[in-house]
Every structure is written in C-alpha cells, then in structure tokens.
Write a structure and sequence with these properties.
Order of helices and strands: EHEE
CATH architecture: 2-Layer Sandwich
Helix content: 25-40%
Distance between the termini: 16 Å
Number of helices: 1
Strand content: 35-45%
CATH topology: Alpha-Beta Plaits
C-alpha cells in the first residue's frame, strides 16, 4: 500500500504592472507585489522554494516556485 505524505505544485507567476507606463514608480509597485506574495507565503507557513526569479527590463517579474503541502 502506498501513502501520499506530501504534494508539490510548481507555479510560474507573472507579476505585471497595470499601467502602460514604464516608470520607476510602476516598477517599484511590481516589486512590492512580489514582496507581499512572499510575505503571505511566510505568514501562512507555506513550505516553498523559489526556483527562479527573473526581472525583465520593463519591470515585469517572473517567479517560479514549488509549493509543498503536507497531506
């Protein structure tokens, strides 16, 4: 008999700014959103590992992570 002890989900999240402008303010808002996402994972005590985090020149951020939840 096999039992599943934990499940993993791989996610790729694309954080984009909602404004069309490519100002420093909009880039900073995207970075703040990424930081809030990471803090929420920590606050909820979600086990995760960031595989990659790519920042594009226009301020967009790609975060690829693994979420591991006990079952």
């Amino acid at each position: 008999m096999k039992r599943i002890k934990a499940a993993c989900i791989t996610q790729t999240i694309h954080f984009i700014n909602k404004d069309i402008t490519k100002s420093e303010y909009s880039k900073r808002k995207v970075q703040e959103e990424v930081t809030r996402y990471k803090h929420r994972l920590d606050r909820e005590r979600t086990k995760y590992k960031i595989l990659s985090e790519e920042v594009e020149e226009d301020g967009f951020v790609f975060v690829q992570n693994i979420l591991k939840e006990p079952i």
